[in-house]
Amino acid sequence: MHMRSLVFAGAATLLASLPVVLAQESDEPFVAGTRQKLSASLDDMLRTALRGNPDVLVAEATLRHAQASLNQARLRTAQEVSALHHERQLVLKTREEHRARLEEMALMMKSGTASKDEFRKAALAVAQADAAVAQVEASLRYVLGLGGARRVALDSLTDRPFHKGPKVAAIRPAIPDVVAGQLRAWITPQWTDLELDEVCGKLQTACDNNLTFTLDPRLVPYKHQVTLSTPREVMVSEAMLAIVDLAGGGSLAFVFRDYGVLLTTREWAMGMNAPAIPPETPLKTR
């Protein structure tokens, strides 16, 4: 009985002292995370806030994220420019070799030591080399930010989850082989002040009417006259490129549709997902 009295007395003393302890602990203000006293100095508060404020920490993480993306974009662009510069040097050298071969074949054909078919093959090689140069230079202009169209996207540095990569221009389909064969027909333009619909008729005749050339009706009100005279035979595809350059100053384009070849403006051609001349005509993505 005496032992029980001592236990009850001790418990009562502990319970009586608990409110005092709780009151003493609640005198200091509560700070989330750890208990720290608020400094009376404004400078100390500013230093603490700039070091630990959640919004500041999120902004710093976003900045590091953006800086990493920028560094990746710079590295990728440098790699693309270097690769395209090297490729451009190669295709330019190849084109010069084909042009020299074409001049040689022209002299040989005049002397009777080369056939017309051999000359045409040499001319075709020059045309293909011209197209290769145009494609590489269009890609290079895109990478340099000077216009043009991207041909290939380099994805070697886009494996990080947060990296979405650059917006890549769509690539047009290639001209079908059957149609490309018709464009290799030979023509010797001697045109003076022809209207665009007359030019379409000349091109269609050169292809033995196997291709239908149509002038976009929206171009009818505009007066584009073409004067084109070449000292030698050229392929129809070369004549088409010359028409684009001479008639509209690069504002026209030929688009290969199911019904034939449509001569339209470059802007309208950008909305048509089909082969085109010039091949570097941009294609808008929707």
Written description of the protein model:
With 286 residues, the protein is an alpha+beta fold. The chain folds into 3 domains: 2-38; 39-169; 177-277, Phage tail protein beta-alpha-beta fold. The protein has 8 helices and 8 strands, in the order αααααββαβββαββαβ. The chain has helices at 2-25, 42-52, 54-111, 116-143, 177-182, 196-206, 236-247, 266-269; strands at 186-187, 190-195, 213-215, 225-229, 234-235, 252-257, 260-265, 276-277. The strands form 3 sheets. Strands 3-7-6-8 form a 4-stranded mixed β-sheet. Strand 6 (252-257) and strand 7 form a beta hairpin.
- Poorly predicted sequence stretches spanning 5 or more consecutive residues: 6-12, 14-32, 151-168
Helix content: 40-55%
| Total helical segments | 8
**Helix-strand sequence:** HHHHHEEHEEEHEEHE
Name the descriptors.
Phage tail protein beta-alpha-beta fold
Briefly say what this structure is.
This protein is α+β, with helices and mostly antiparallel strands and 286 residues long.
List the helices and strands and how they pair.
Elements lengths: L1 H24 L16 H11 L1 H58 L4 H28 L33 H6 L3 E2 L2 E6 H11 L6 E3 L9 E5 L4 E2 H12 L4 E6 L2 E6 H4 L6 E2 L9
Parallel strand pairs: 3-7
Antiparallel strand pairs: 1-5, 2-4, 6-7, 6-8
Helix pairs in contact: 3-4
